[in-house]
Design goal:
Elements: H1 2-28, E1 40-45, H2 48-63, E2 68-74, H3 79-84, E3 90-94, H4 95-102, H5 111-126, E4 128-130, E5 140-145, H6 146-152, H7 157-163, E6 168-171, H8 182-189, E7 196-199, H9 205-210, E8 216-220, E9 232-234, E10 247-252, H10 253-258, H11 262-271, H12 275-286, H13 292-302
Parallel strand pairs: 1-2, 6-7
Antiparallel strand pairs: 3-10, 4-10, 5-8, 5-9
Helix pairs in contact: 2-11, 2-13, 4-5, 12-13
Length: 304
């Protein structure tokens, strides 16, 4: 009888211990652990794509148990100084921006080479780490009306240069003069002798193309309107004149050292993004008028 009571006592004790362990494991995912009590401040630039990606980072960190402070709509001209001055802890940046606008280095066009260079220099100069870069490339491009593309068989900028004299260009003024704009293309592809060239506000370019007032316009390669492939065709930069602008998280070394698991959490977001995906997400906000937080949440849940 005595042995039976002892056996019951041992079994009961084991059940209690197992229950406590299971309970602790179940709470671990969503409850801030002791070393996650400090908020991670995520900054974003003041345009749709950066807001969406920053929100994805925030959702992923919250899901991992971190507290997050969102710092949206920082001007692109000051966001680098914001992280250097420790006003924010991380933000989504573009490899081409880091290479040319921040580091002011010579133009490179290989995505891996650009990433390696900015990663090395940011670590050395600013104590900042670039986590994995995504396949999403928000770079410079040219968009053509689908009808014009079909009429002249234009799919690449090489094709475009051959037919430039038959095409109307919707310029944005500055792109005609900037060293990394049309002059950069003409050095490699040859002179672009447009049938006509007129300056339009950037916000109007898709209306201009849609209304057949022009055939070609400068574009960024992840603009939401580009999902309408029956209307607009993004031309391939087949001689790789323009640098890559791959999206990647930049984080302060001090924060990453204190919370090394952040790398794995955020890199999962980068691995889920490519140019078509981010273009579609941008379209939901800029074309369909959905809230960027809702778009980010729906996408985040879809990749879980």
């Amino acid at each position: 009888m005595k042995n039976k009571k002892k056996k019951i006592y041992i079994i009961t004790s084991l059940i209690i211990v197992l229950s406590l362990l299971l309970s602790a494991c179940g709470e671990q995912k969503n409850q801030p652990s002791e070393n996650k009590e400090t908020s991670i401040r995520i900054g974003t630039k003041d345009f749709t794509e950066n807001l969406i990606v920053g929100e994805l980072y925030a959702l992923a960190l919250e899901d991992a148990g971190y507290q997050v402070e969102r710092v949206p709509n920082i001007a692109g001209s000051v966001i680098h100084s914001s992280i250097v001055n420790q006003d924010i802890d991380m933000y989504p940046e573009y490899t081409g921006t880091g290479l040319l606008a921040i580091l002011k280095l010579e133009l490179l066009t290989d995505p891996d080479e650009v990433y390696a260079k900015v990663k090395e220099e940011y670590k050395k100069q600013f104590n900042l780490t670039w986590l994995d870069y995504s396949k999403a490339n928000d770079g410079a491009g040219l968009v053509i009306r689908a009808e014009a593309s079909e009429q002249w068989g234009i799919k690449t900028i090489t094709d475009l240069q051959k037919h430039a004299t038959e095409l109307r260009f919707a310029s944005q003024g500055e792109v005609d003069q900037r060293a990394d704009g049309i002059p950069a293309l003409e050095k490699v592809y040859g002179k672009l002798n447009w049938k006509s060239s007129k300056v339009y506000d950037n916000s109007l370019k898709y209306e201009v193309l849609k209304n057949n007032e022009a055939d070609v316009a400068p574009a960024y390669t992840t603009e939401g309107q580009l999902v309408n492939k029956d209307q607009y065709i993004l031309l391939e930069d087949d001689k790789q004149v323009w640098p890559p602008y791959n999206l990647a998280p930049v984080i302060r070394d001090e924060v990453l050292s204190a919370h090394p698991d952040i790398a794995e959490v955020i890199n999962k977001i980068s691995s889920a993004l490519d140019t078509d995906t981010i273009t579609a997400l941008n379209a939901k906000v800029d074309v369909d008028q959905e809230e960027y937080e809702d778009v980010a949440k729906a996408f985040y849940e879809s990749i879980q």
